[in-house]
């Protein structure tokens, strides 16, 4: 697992890892997978592509891992594509909804997350259909992540014969948003779609409020709504799209199991990121248990790709009942 354990996005990586590790520890205490214990090796990439490539090569060539699991981010995933295309090692549950991972992928990938296009559709529906906005601006992280989400947002706006009134960008792993704030404030936008991580986005919203600029906002799930909301100083209207339910307000079987396991691990404030990491580990384990040892890539991917039809309790969390090709999108509101 290559993820951010340092830097301004570290809380995302830390919480995903913790959720996965709690499930795997429980599994190993109960005999593991067909007698084999799961070892989750984690390395810090700081949400930087070059470090993700180095970690991935180390995992494959030195650690001889069976799979790459829970990798964090679109720019990091994009950077390791050449390795994955060459070796076809399973790339499981990446923390990204990028198109190249979801639509006709060239790698051996398995996604639990909804696509960013699904999230974009929900955000534009909220802003345009439910709140009657027509002057919508974008604040975009300037990298592959920003570009793929921006593309989905533009496509969703186009369905309503709209375009963004202004697009402002900021550098990944920085909080330098003041020039972007000036641009969007001058644009006359009444709503802004935010694409980034929790620190720069909260800095933008707080600074905008202090300048008497208070549009409505939407945010992509990658930002980590729990960490984003916690950093807001003022009352704001912000809707974040989510790809897993709030486990604290969910009575589904896996929500209940998750809360029990988090309490046993003395985690007092379990959140969606913990839950996503936990679910990732559970789904991997459920598929791997249906394969003989030693674990083979073909069997693992085959079992993963039918897991939603095999497990109704997993299916209920993610699959849209009215459209089996789309995931459920949840919302959280500040």
TrEMBL record:
<feature type="domain" description="Leucine-binding protein">
    <location>
        <begin position="2"/>
        <end position="304"/>
    </location>
</feature>
<comment type="similarity">
    <text>Belongs to the leucine-binding protein family.</text>
</comment>
<dbReference type="InterPro" id="IPR028082">
    <property type="entry name" value="Peripla_BP_I"/>
</dbReference>
<dbReference type="InterPro" id="IPR028081">
    <property type="entry name" value="Leu-bd"/>
</dbReference>
<protein>
    <submittedName>
        <fullName>ABC transporter substrate-binding protein</fullName>
    </submittedName>
</protein>
<keyword id="KW-0732">Signal</keyword>
<dbReference type="Pfam" id="PF13458">
    <property type="entry name" value="Peripla_BP_6"/>
</dbReference>
